[in-house]
Write a structure and sequence with these properties.
The structure is a single chain. The protein has about 100 residues and is α+β, with helices and mostly antiparallel strands. It is built from three helices and four strands. It has one domain. A hairpin with a 4-residue loop joins β1 and β2. The chain is flat and about 45 Å long. The two termini are about 20 Å apart.
């Protein structure tokens, strides 16, 4: 990963590290709701046993599919758009590093 990406990650970690309230708390777990990277960056290091993240599939590329017998767009929003190989790789490295920090 390039120095620019590392600096950006470090800056976002430091600026977001503040108390975060779980969405749901049970006897054995806490569930946080939010952007995966932003939420992970706000958690203390080595404080997590599992991460479940619903990441974009990057399918919003102008294509179509068939739904209920009709042709419909697969475009969801900008968050699901392909950023190219380098952009997608940087995105995935960012969230994976955020996970590694809290594991």
């Amino acid at each position: 990963m390039g120095n620019d990406m590392q600096a950006l990650l470090k800056q976002s970690v430091l600026s977001l590290r503040e108390e975060i309230t779980p969405f749901i708390t049970t006897k054995h777990s806490r569930l946080y709701l939010g952007d995966a990277v932003e939420t992970l960056n706000r958690l203390p290091a080595e404080s997590v046993d599992m991460v479940f993240a619903d990441l974009p599939y990057n399918l919003s590329n102008g294509g179509t599919t068939c739904h209920a017998g009709k042709r419909v767009s697969v475009n969801k929003a900008l968050w699901d758009a392909n950023r190219g190989i380098r952009g997608d790789f940087a995105f995935h490295m960012n969230w994976i590093q955020a996970c590694r920090r809290v594991f």
